[in-house]
């Protein structure tokens, strides 16, 4: 398994391209700059199978339609945010005087296994940053795509629609910090880290 991280848009949101030995790929959170994302997919020579959304905030969905249309692939989002793609108030873009939307997702996800091609993800429900935030753990890649739940040295904000700090802390503790310490944490912003590093060094988690 290999992945590439692309920081896109004014908030430098992380879009990830994950692929296997068969060059099948999954795209996580295409947040902006659809042409840039599609060009990188072409450069890598991979075949996208799906778009997986960790959550439906505007900075994570801005290029959904461009990537979906280019590769004719479905979009997956948690059922709690099924209507957020079209709602600028819920996805937060209206809060920043923007109008960022996408067409509805084809599939809803919930806690448990998710099989796409030869990929088998463990969908971890990690609400708090938003009600439908999920993290996708792939044991074979020793990685978790955590969205905006957990960052290197930080945690997600909880002051937007549906945010809940106590719930976010519980999600991180119960769902993410219980993964193997060597697990790579691929966050929605910033650089990669590991579960063990965040357990030891993240100031927001000390004493939890």
From TrEMBL:
Keywords of this entry: Hydrolase, Metal-binding, Zinc
InterPro entries per record: MBL_Glyoxalase_II, Metallo-B-lactamas, RibonucZ/Hydroxyglut_hydro
Coiled-coil boundaries: none
Record-level Gene Ontology MF annotations: hydrolase activity; metal ion binding
One Pfam family linked to the record: Lactamase_B
Keyword match Nucleus: no
Limits of the Metallo-beta-lactamase domain: 12-189
Keyword Hydrolase: yes
CDD domains on file: metallo-hydrolase-like_MBL-fold
Cofactor names: Zn(2+)
Protein name: Metallo-beta-lactamase domain-containing protein
Organism listed in the record: Fictibacillus macauensis ZFHKF-1
């Amino acid at each position: 398994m290999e992945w590439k991280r692309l920081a896109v848009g004014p908030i430098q949101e992380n879009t990830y391209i994950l692929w296997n030995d068969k060059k099948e790929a999954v795209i996580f959170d295409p947040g902006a700059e659809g042409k840039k994302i599609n060009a990188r997919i072409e450069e890598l020579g991979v075949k996208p199978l799906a778009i997986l959304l960790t959550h439906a905030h505007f900075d994570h969905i801005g290029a959904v339609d461009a990537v979906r249309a280019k590769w004719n692939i479905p979009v997956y989002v948690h059922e709690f945010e099924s209507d957020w793609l079209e709602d600028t108030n819920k996805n937060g873009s209206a809060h920043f005087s923007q109008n960022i939307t996408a067409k509805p997702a084809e599939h809803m996800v919930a806690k448990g296994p998710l099989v796409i091609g030869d990929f088998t993800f463990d969908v971890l429900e990690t609400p708090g940053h938003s009600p439908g935030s999920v993290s996708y753990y792939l044991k074979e890649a020793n990685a978790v795509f955590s969205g905006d739940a957990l960052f290197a040295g930080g945690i997600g904000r909880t002051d937007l629609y549906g945010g809940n700090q106590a719930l976010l802390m519980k999600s991180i503790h119960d769902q993410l910090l219980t993964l193997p310490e060597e697990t790579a944490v691929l966050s929605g912003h910033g650089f990669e880290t590991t579960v063990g590093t965040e357990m030891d060094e993240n100031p927001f988690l000390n004493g939890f």
